[in-house]
Structures are given as C-alpha cells and as structure tokens.
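Changelog-adjacent note: as of this version, every example in the card shows the full chain rather than a window. The one below runs 257 residues end to end.
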Amino acid sequence: MNTPTDITQLYNALFQIEAKLKSAGEYPIHKRLDFGGAFTDIYEFLVSKIDIKNKHILDAGCGVGFGSLLFAKNNAAKITGISVSDLEIESADRNKNKYHFDNVDFKVSNFENTESCNYDLIFCVESLKHSLDFDKDFNALLNGLKPNGKLVIVDDFFEGKITTAACEAFMDDWNLNFLFALSHFSGMPHKFTLEIEDLTHFMPKKSLFKINMQLLFFKLLKRKSMLKKLFKGGLLLDKLYAKKAMKYQLIIIAKQE
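Full-length structure tokens:
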C-alpha cells in the first residue's frame, strides 16, 4: 500500500518532469484534450459549464494553480488551492504573484483536511484517484460543501470487468491504491444528487499498436528511474483507454439544502 510520502514524491516528480516540457503557467495535465478549438484545457471547459461567479471554491489538487487563477479571472469570490506537492504550491504562488489576486490562497494540504461546510464548489480534477483512503477523503469533501454546494470530479474511471496485468502495472507506476470506478459513489447519502457526463470523446484517439511499441521500448530499457516509471504509467493508461477499459468522466455531486 502507498503512503502519503509516496504520493508527494509522485507529484513532485511529475512537476519536475512537466516543468521542463510546458510553460510555467500551464496546468500540468497529462492528457491532450480536443474541444474542437473552443477550449485548451479541462478547467476552461468546466468554467463554461458551471457557474462560479461569487462562489467560494476549493481547488483540491490544484497543480501549479492554472485552474484556481482561472476561477479568479472569472469572478469567483475566494479560491483555495491545495496540493500535497510543495513544489507545485511554490510554483502556484509564483504564478499568483504575476496577477496580484488577493482572493486566491495556495497551501500544501490534502483532502482529509477539508474545512467543514465551507465551500460552494469543490473541484477535484484528476486528483481523487490518488486518494489513499477513498471513503475518508470523499466524505471529507462532501462534508466541506455548504448547502446547495457542488463537488465536481473529473478523472479516469475504470470500465473493465476485471483487472488485468496492465491495470496492476498502471496502479504500481502511478502509486494508486485502487482503480477509480463509478461504483465508488453507490453508497452516497440521500441528501446528495449525482450527475454524470462522459467526456471520453474529447480525448484524442491513440493507436494501440503504437502504444504497445512504446511500452516495448520501456520494457527493453533496463535502467530504473522515476521518469521511466511515470512515462510507462501514462502509456499503460493510454492502453486501457484504447481497449475501452477506461472512461474520462465528469461527476457533479450536489448537496441539497
């Protein structure tokens, strides 16, 4: 089983790798989504869909702050961005200082420490799958919502019938304790409503043959490194999507008054 240190090291490594590949203000997201030219990022899609004006928002898994700062630019009242990665939070603070927003705060924290009944909106963009204890963290996020508040989750959801060697290898490479699935929401309290939207069609199609060839390259590469581990994990996720064992889902959970 993975530990909090494992997850922090993973996100710090992701930041260090992607900081070399992307501009300082870009959200370090692995997927290249195609919104037909309307948007360039999943956060922009979410802002177009969900009313954030004058809302108090928790960006749980904020990365380098791209989404949090986008919320501020679109008239959210107050935004708190959290990450378990100190490197991401340091970068997020630097990005914030460029825009001089006084209603955005970044801090190193986790889901479990979510303040009770404090937020109109909580966003978890590709972060909740890294929870070490889903039930505890999910309940903490639900408890963090004000009446009529919403928890917005975007992530990779396992759609396969059984786990495979590729699933297990993916979990190992990305330090996952479980495969996220819609069944995780089956026992939700009655005062919450659930809305699901499949966003898989926004993901570019990738050749299974090409993915397998790239995986073969990493298999032949004997030297162990975090870079190899992370890239191989990304390819294994691509393989699960190519085999239709994963879907990219938007989950909106609303708390009734």
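Structural remarks: The mean pLDDT is 90.
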